[in-house]
Design brief:
The chain has 413 residues and is mainly alpha-helical. The protein has helices spanning 2-18, 23-37, 42-54, 56-77, 80-92, 95-107, 119-128, 133-145, 155-164, 168-191, 204-217, 219-229, 235-256, 266-273, 276-294, 297-307, 312-327, 331-341, 348-368, 373-382, 386-390, 396-411. Helix 4 (56-77) packs parallel to helix 13, helix 6 (95-107) runs antiparallel to helix 7 and helix 8 packs antiparallel against helix 10.
Amino acid sequence: MVLVKLILSILIILYLVNRKINIGYSLMIGGIALGLFTGRSLVHIFGLIIEAVSDYQTLSLALAIGLITVMGHLMDKYYLMERMIGALEKMLRSAKATIMFAPVIIGTLLVSGGALMSCPVVDNLGEKMNISQEKKASINMIFRHGLYFIFPLSPTIVMAAEIGGYEVNDFIFLMLPIGILFYIIAYTFYFRNVKSPEIENVDMKEYLTSIKGFLIYSSPILVSLMGVLLINLEFYISLILGIVLCFVINKIDKRKDSKFNLKENILMTMLKGVKVPLVISIFGIMVYKNIVNDVNEINELLKNMLEFGIPIELVVFLSAALISYALGSTNPSVAILFPMILPLAPDYDTRLLYAMFIYTTAFMFYFISPLHLCQVVTFDYFKVKMKGVFKNYIYILPVTYLAMVIIYSVKIK
């Protein structure tokens, strides 16, 4: 049965990861195992691997992840991150607000692996508040991903609305209470017993200076975000512009203070910033996804469940859980389940409720998937294990999901 075969491949991946094998290599091995379990020949599997690693989406994503690590390295070495955090703290007048808003601001990009960009900010501020590595990792993940419920420029929300045949605003309005609750619970759980370090008082001139400083020192990140959001540049091109800005700011800084002069070749500095294991993980994820997508038996499994008269909510839960956990993405669940489930809705409002149920379930299992790239890069940055971080999700995710179920139950006809 394909379900057993899929579970076995996931168990292989988890075993290898726990044995300290790079997640990218683990995914490739798990994908090959799945292909063999489902009767694919080695030649066919090899073709799928070549197709995945040579795909433009894979290459551009791998390049983007490599450039994110380079930019983060440059912002650290050139003291841009340190000064940006200081300016943001003065602007927001709270270290707690800063550690929450940094992942949210960067999270507006909603690009795979983008959580890596906010890791240094969360790490720096978390140290000041004596927050553990596991909790810092979960803070970075939670506050970034709350946007998936309510951000109108989210590619997944836009795609879902197009496939589902409803208005984006109607869907966001339905999801808004869930998104708000998600952040409220997160703040209560992570910061209720945390003492925020004191922020020095500043006058208006100093406050305006802090705004100016924030805009300057965060400009590499802001340019990377705006290039994608405003003028639809490829992410890696926006990142190149951000990296160039790092060099420009550093060049100006060196004229003012010698401490900003690294006395190192620019290319060498960039190469030191590339995190090769993260780049490898991209190829592993894309290889595994390509092999799973080739297993048509998964679609057949979903159809059979509906034909047997199983409740639609149970079909949605099991199907979205299986697909999104296995693939580490919300999109496949939306792409597969929306066309199957939404046409069964008797009216527009019910269609929205079905969409909410599918989307939220898919998000939850995508969030905890070992293939979730943001999770992979966050765990790697903070040097933490899955078990230690997942205990910090124990209230937030179940309560948020329960809120969705309550809304669904009250509104469904």
